[in-house]
Amino acid sequence: MATATVELKPKDYKSNIPPDWCPGCGDFGVLNALQRACSELKIAPHEIVVVSGIGCSSNLPGFFRAYGVHGLHGRPIPVATGIKLANKDLTVIATGGDGDGYGIGLSHMIHAIRRNVNITYIVMNNQIYGLTTGQVSPTSLLNMKTKSTPKGNIELPINPLMLALAAGCDYVARGFSGDIKHLTELYKGALQHRGFALVDVFSPCVTFNRYNTYDWFRQRIKKLEDKGHDPTDFVAAMEEAKKVGDEEVTIGLFYRNPNPRPPLEDLDEVIASGPPLVKRPLGITNAEARPLLEELM
Amino acid sequence: MALDDLVVGIGGAAGDGIASAGDTLALALARQGLRIYAYNSYQSVVRGGRIWLRMRIANRQPLSPGNVLNALVALNQEALDLHLQEIQPGGAALFNTHRVRRAPEKGPDGVQLCPIPVPDLAPVYKDLPVIQNTVLIGALYAIMGLPFDGVESVLESTFARKGQKVIDMNVGAARAGYDYAAEHFQKMELALKPQPTQKRYAVMTGNEAFGLGAVAAGVRMYVAYPMTPASGILHWMAAHGPAVGISVRQPEDEIAVMNMAIGANHAGIRCMCGTSGGGFALMTEAMGMAGMIETPVVCIEVQRGGPSTGLPTKTEQGDLFQVFGAGQGDYPRLIVAPTNVYDCFETVKEVFNLAEKYQLPAVILSDLLLSEHHETVEPDRFDFENPPIDRGELITEANGGDGEAYLRYKITETGVSPRAIPGVPGHLYVAPTDEHDEDGVLISDIYTDPVRRKRMMEKRMRKMVYLKNELPPPRLEGPADAEVTLVGWGSTWGVIREAVEALAAEGIKVNHLQIKYIVPFHGEEVAQILSKAKKIIMVEQNFGGQLARHLRSETGIKADGHIRKYDGEPFEPKHIVAGVKRILAGEEELVTCVSDEPGWRYDHPSFV
């Protein structure tokens, strides 16, 4: 991670486009905390690429001053992976919503964790499909009534943190967009972690999710650090990750592997062998390529 | 008359080692200055099934699998039973008496039966049954009247890493087969002109040529999910890529493949991906993204028999419409169908330069025949340095300046806007799949603006005009005053060319137009060429005549006749020759061909 010499403030990460989210949307907090985290870590905007999918939350790159790709629904992770492997000097952040990341694009997260791509994945989890005006999502709670489940959701919600832990994710955290200071710290840890880092953020949808509201969260939220949780304890992390629902909502750093696996960029023999691929000269001479032909002769 | 062009068939089951026997034979012939074209017909099983490798051997380069069978190496009873009757007079059938117990007393008229007692000639056979292939290749060499040192030289290099003992054992086995055959059987009457043994030709598949082309094009990453018949590129890349600085990654599915490849290209490297029709179906949404965010990406689509899972190990040209229709909406794209193995190499270099210059997705359309068949090529033709790599208007740290008022999607005359890669100071932008303005800001949501939308659509599509002007126009091959003009695309170039020669020998004057650049299409040039044609006959390896429809939509020209094949096996010249005659005789407008010699028939177990 390269750092800038000039001082960077959160506003330096603010684009000149005002967010078009509904007033009160949780995603404002997500954006705000990310701007703070990047400024506190002094990562220059041109060395950051924010890659998103499609959905309300996936509009975030347009409001964040850095390089960005506003890609396809569910596919920010493979695009981010390609960018990171091509230029390992960049700080690459993948973002999206729960439908994007835990629905249509879920397999990419599991495989990115397996291969330990050195990116930070931020999921703005509002437990509803917002941009399409309020259908059930993979994280909607049981019995929740939505436009596509008028009699209540009959499908068990996904538990992304347990999934990530089981897949071997070395940095697993959950934040709440109503607590920007706390969230900023989780982001900073994720951005500094060399390897795949998941930050799931409860980011209330004030328009289409009338159940999981700010008040609903505030009444239930407990911080792991207040409970004396040891984030290096995998089993304890799994136990805490299990707890999600009406009684308690836990946020904080669930797990940070004290002996993290090396990221993919250190394991791929070509990428590991020198400067970022993008900085290597192109082209080969006929003499250098000759052995490839000789082998077929 | 002595043959200067013959077909040897090697038949057996998966697991018999036919591919490596074929490799040995092909290399031995190539080192003696002979040219080969080999096509392996196989099934989607790992053990068993029926493998049928046909190798055409000639003094000048064969361009198709050929029409007939002149010699047979039967690795099991079934192969002999199936193919014996196909052998032409003057030919021979070789087999291991230990594997083939029920050989007939005599073969068809003029066909020599050559039973070979492999266990006696190579005692190691009882522990290493695959040695039968080596013995039989040796014997075949003697029957073809070729000097043994071709085989010896190849076995020496193949087993070099396993030590002298293994080399001696293999050379000894081949030699024993060679000597036995020389003593017991007659040589075929051939007019092959072998040269003193030395490395002179490379034996290459289209997939290997794609890999080499990627090396020449400066590709830094290859991404693919396994799928026959594109997996050969992945295997070649995995084995050779890292040594020449190419990272090779196998993601979880083709959706990830295409998105990852786009990400890598977006970040400024050249990244290639490859798949077959089923995988390409998953890539289509992302291909549209590349068109929209104007990121170059190159995908090799190796067609196999469809629809759906279809014929996983058989050839077809059935994905043209899929590639045309990939992704929603109109966006600029390049679709190119190379015509032979050497052209596969050239096409990758060319397509990367164009994809980068015009910042658009490109598909190289191959098929199983082109990608997997082996042919001899002249290694000195392979130029890794030319044409030089042209990255188009790319902004890097070296030439970036301060980027004041940088507009990633700036409207220009050609539609091409200078492309900054992430990491360059002063050029921040978002590449969005939503419609956007010159600065990359969305105009799709609350700021929808019909005027700007129209302008941006036209900017992107304008690139197609300039791109087309750079592509070499199609060229008519053969006499201008022909009775018939055959039109094909991609891999059928060679077989059509041989059909043209065969028809000329029978007094029917035919010329030939092969389409390589499918999108953008040289509508005017093609129309001009075809306006002079007396009778236009399309030759396509598919059911529906996809190029014929494309031709009609792009030029208004309706072909007079169609020769089609969709049985999974490649065209042979004879199919096209017969088709042209039938169409000329007014018997049919549409001739469908099938490979129906007894050797292709299979009594399905449930029918017995």
Describe the structure.
Chain A has 297 residues and is of the alpha/beta class. Chain A is 34% helix and 15% strand. Chain A has a single domain, classed as Thiamin diphosphate (ThDP)-binding fold, Pyr/PP domains (Rossmann fold), CATH 3.40.50. In chain A, strand 1 (48-52), helix 2 (60-63) and strand 2 form a beta-alpha-beta unit. Chain B has 4 domains: 5-200, Pyruvate-ferredoxin Oxidoreductase, domain 3 (3-Layer(aba) Sandwich), CATH 3.40.920; 203-381, Thiamin diphosphate (ThDP)-binding fold, Pyr/PP domains (Rossmann fold); 393-471, no CATH class; 476-599, Rossmann fold, CATH 3.40.50.920. Helices cover 35% and strands 20% of the residues of chain B. In chain B, the strands form 4 sheets. An 8-stranded mixed sheet of chain B has the order 6-5-4-1-3-2-14-7, with helices on both faces. Chain B has a 7-stranded mixed sheet with strand order 9-8-10-11-13-12-21, sandwiched between helices. Chain B has a 6-stranded mixed sheet with strand order 18-20-19-22-23-24, with helices on both faces. In chain B, helix 1 crosses helix 5. The two termini of chain B are 42 Å apart. Classes of the chains: A alpha/beta (297), B alpha/beta (608). Strand 2 (67-70) of chain A pairs parallel with strand 17 of chain B, so a sheet runs across the interface.
